[in-house]
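[Meeting: bench + compute handoff]

Bench side (C.D.) handed over the final construct sequence. Compute side (W.E.) agreed to return the predicted structure before the next meeting so the bench team could plan truncations. Sequence as handed over:
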Amino acid sequence: MPLERLTDFFADYRPQTQKATVCVRAAVLCPLYVEDETLKILFIKRSQTVRHHKGEISFPGGAKDLQDSSLEKTCLRETEEEIGVRESEITIFGALDEVNTSTGFLVSPFVGSIPYPYDFKLSSNEVDNLISLAVNDFLEPDNEVDFFYFNGRRLSAQRAFKINNHIIWGATAKIMGQFLNIGKEFDLFPKPSPQTFHLAS
């Protein structure tokens, strides 16, 4: 099973950390689940009322609060607040390398699984809707696209994916890219079943 392979791998994986200076510490969850033998990953589309990253596709998560005992705790708390999955029902496999955002956050991404199907309860102030995509779709070369971001001063090329008309870019694409690179290098993702065709007689 793909989740078992990921669990075993991340038990020994040691992510790279960065020295936090003036950055705001934050954490996100890369939520995985299996549907019809397909490994899927869940994203959120942020509302237009959040302070940062309005309308963008991202992973559930947010800034570390003073009462959070760890960044993993931040990840669990924020996921429950944003999409309603209880902390006790999330299984954390491990973490990916920390990622800086253009808005001054240093993000710790955690990889884990969530139950599915699930009665998600979205935070109306923070989340517009959920977007579920197959991990193997990110491995299709045609789904990685050219994307340029203008920050008001300069234009920069960004890694991005376009799947089912959803564009994933910025820090979320960096995190997803890390996850894909690891999965390909260590053969962690199940291959899609080959299609069979029958000739008409």
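W.E. noted at the follow-up: DSSP finds four helices and eleven strands in the chain. C.D. will use this when planning the next construct.
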